């Protein structure tokens, strides 16, 4: 399957499939899940790890680490999902600022990554990361 044939709904469903929250004391692991599709058409997934001391990481970081482990670096499309405990409603989450910068730094071409923001809504990473270009010298 090529990346152009992966719909937002398919990617959202793939992320939802790896969403399995686990409570450990007052922390909740795996309550956000990410699936990304590489330029080569491969999929990688990951979940967040919330720790009390700040050593945890976002779901995007876990999925990107799996991708890099497989020697791929170019992300064509990415989505993150979260399910609200109170009513089970599924939400698509935009990447936080740290994840936006992380995606960009893995490969410069990732500035063109399609970030899924909903069933019928996406944006490029460039649109979500303003002023991402390296500054020009003043003189």
TrEMBL record:
UniProt-listed InterPro entries: APOBEC/CMP_deaminase_Zn-bd, CMP_dCMP_dom, Cyt/Deoxycyt_deaminase, Cytidine_deaminase-like
Ranges of residues in domain CMP/dCMP-type deaminase: 22-108
Pfam annotation, one family: dCMP_cyt_deam_1
Protein name stated in the entry: Cytidine deaminase
Keywords assigned by UniProt, alphabetized: Hydrolase, Metal-binding, Zinc
Similarity section: Belongs to the cytidine and deoxycytidylate deaminase family.
């Amino acid at each position: 399957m090529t990346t152009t044939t992966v719909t937002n709904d398919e990617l959202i469903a793939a992320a939802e499939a790896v969403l399995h929250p686990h409570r450990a004391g007052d922390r909740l692991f795996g309550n956000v899940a990410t699936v990304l599709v590489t330029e080569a058409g491969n999929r990688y997934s990951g979940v967040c790890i919330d720790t009390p001391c700040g050593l945890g990481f976002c779901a995007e970081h876990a999925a990107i680490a799996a991708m890099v482990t497989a020697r791929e670096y170019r992300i064509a499309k990415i989505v993150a999902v979260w399910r609200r405990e109170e009513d089970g409603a599924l939400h698509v989450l935009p990447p936080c600022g740290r994840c936006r910068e992380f995606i960009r730094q893995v490969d410069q071409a990732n500035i063109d990554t399609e970030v899924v923001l909903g069933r019928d809504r996406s944006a490029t990473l460039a649109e979500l990361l303003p002023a991402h270009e390296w500054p020009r010298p003043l003189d």
